[in-house]
From TrEMBL:
Name of the molecule in the record: RXLT1 xylosyltransferase
Gene that produces this protein: Rxylt1
Organism: Donacobius atricapilla
Keyword line: Transferase
InterPro entries, A to Z: RXYLT1-like (IPR055286), RXYLT1_C (IPR057538), RXYLT1_N (IPR057539)
Pfam families membership: RXYLT1_C, RXYLT1_N
Domain RXYLT1 C-terminal: 200-389
Residues annotated as domain RXYLT1 N-terminal: 51-194
Claim: Ribonucleoprotein is one of the keywords in the record: no
PANTHER family: RIBITOL-5-PHOSPHATE XYLOSYLTRANSFERASE 1
GO annotations of cellular component type: Golgi apparatus
GO terms for biological process, alphabetical: protein O-linked glycosylation via mannose
Keyword Repeat attributed: no
GO MF annotation terms: ribitol beta-1,4-xylosyltransferase activity
Taxonomic path: Eukaryota, Metazoa, Chordata, Craniata, Vertebrata
Length: 394
């Protein structure tokens, strides 16, 4: 028996495994210490701005989890109180949400606040107004210095109620980020914000996988949704049935809108996005819908009915490419159509596309969506910092 047995050119050392383990353990300890030092350092570096975001509308979760890539503790979506924090740019952000976040019943630990509110209908506006009054009181008592609002706007852009609260109109709100093509968007203090995914139905943050990019999909297109009487959605269903195209697509139409998904219907919907090359996006009350962003999450290309819906949206003095001004400005690689009669030709073309071409298109779509969220995050941070930080101009 010899201490060392030659294995090829390598010598076998009976203690080798222990040494390796010890080395790995000390490496881990070293890295952990390094992390601690870095963490302590980053907290010593003064962040110039501290911002607390109060998420009182589901759109806040799109801002925090999807655009900021932030986390919330506890992870349980039904928890009464959830919070998270993140350092970005010169700013330290903390995010609070949940039913327990009630005016006057939590500590305001910052001089700068972003209020996320729902202004979609009168009952929501009444609730949002309570929060604005609370913020106003905090400003009057000098507990808060500046306030921004992220607003889930009304689908017909009837947002007149928020106007008196804006600083430009004698109010106290410095910045407004608002969904849909609100005519008052000016890129100075009023900015368009994406509708995002339906976080109120717990639509998840989707991480693209290899199979999502590369696998053939069973359906050319999908449409799961409500078909309103005398709407373009009826036309869409007719056109699909006419040429037997509904056999090539995953179509599940219902006559009544259901706000709450069952687990089965939600799983079906996600499967449909994952299994279809195209997602059909007919207009609802507004052209912009959650479906657009949800399709992007799964690499299914949105086919969008590009028409203005009735109401007060569109054509600000600054922009004339409404609807979907924000997405068009960001060069969204979608298929825009004016009439569903154009669909059969699109699906014919789709049949002839090779898997390789589809893979390239999915990559482009997923990359665009990732960049879009990163750009919105950066724009949000820059806008806040420009408005909230004292300027260095003498």
């Amino acid at each position: 028996f010899t201490d060392h047995v030659a294995l090829g050119n390598e010598e076998w050392n009976p203690w080798d495994a222990d040494e390796k383990n010890e080395l790995a353990a000390s490496q881990q300890r070293y890295e952990a210490n390094l992390k601690m030092i870095k963490y302590a350092r980053s907290h010593l570096e003064q962040t110039s701005l501290r911002v607390q975001i109060w998420g009182k509308a589901a759109i806040g979760l799109y801002l925090w989890q999807h655009i900021f890539g932030g986390h919330l503790e506890p992870a349980d979506v039904t928890a009464q109180w959830r919070e998270g924090s993140q350092k970005a740019g010169k700013t330290y952000f903390s995010f609070l949400t949940g039913p327990s976040v009630v005016p006057g019943y939590f500590s305001v630990e910052t001089e700068h606040v972003v209020l996320v509110l729902n202004g979609r209908e009168p009952a929501k506006v009444a609730y949002a107004t309570q929060w604005l009054r609370f913020a106003q009181t905090l400003m009057e008592t000098r507990k808060v210095q500046r306030v921004a609002v992220v607003l889930l706007g009304n689908e017909q852009c009837n947002n007149a109620w928020i106007q008196p609260y804006l600083k430009r109109n004698g109010g106290f709100v410095n910045l407004l980020f608002v969904t849909y093509d609100y005519a008052f968007v000016n890129e100075e203090d009023i900015f368009q914000w994406p509708l995002g995914v339906a976080t109120y139905r717990s639509f998840p943050v989707v991480e693209p996988s290899w199979s999502m990019l590369h696998d053939p999909r069973s359906y050319l297109c999908n449409f799961l949704g409500t078909v309103y009487k005398n709407s373009s959605r009826e036309t869409l269903i007719k056109i699909l049935k006419q040429d037997g195209l509904d056999k090539l697509c995953w179509i599940a139409a219902r006559e009544q809108w259901q706000p709450q998904e069952t687990n089965v219907s939600f799983k079906n919907y996600q499967d449909a996005l994952l299994q279809s090359d195209l997602t059909l996006c007919p207009v609802g009350i507004n052209t912009e819908c959650y479906r657009i962003y949800e399709a992007c999450s799964y690499g299914s290309l949105p086919v969008i009915e590009d028409v203005m819906t009735p109401g007060d949206c569109g054509n600000s003095s600054l922009y004339h490419s409404a609807p979907l001004q924000l997405l068009k400005t960001m060069a969204a690689p979608f298929i825009f159509i004016k009439n569903w009669k154009e669909l059969p030709a699109i699906l014919e073309k789709e049949k002839k596309m090779s898997l390789q071409e589809k893979i390239q298109r999915r990559k482009k779509l997923l990359e665009w969506y990732r960049n879009f969220k990163a750009w919105m995050r950066q724009k949000f941070i820059n806008t806040l910092e420009n408005a909230f930080l004292p300027s260095d101009k003498g």
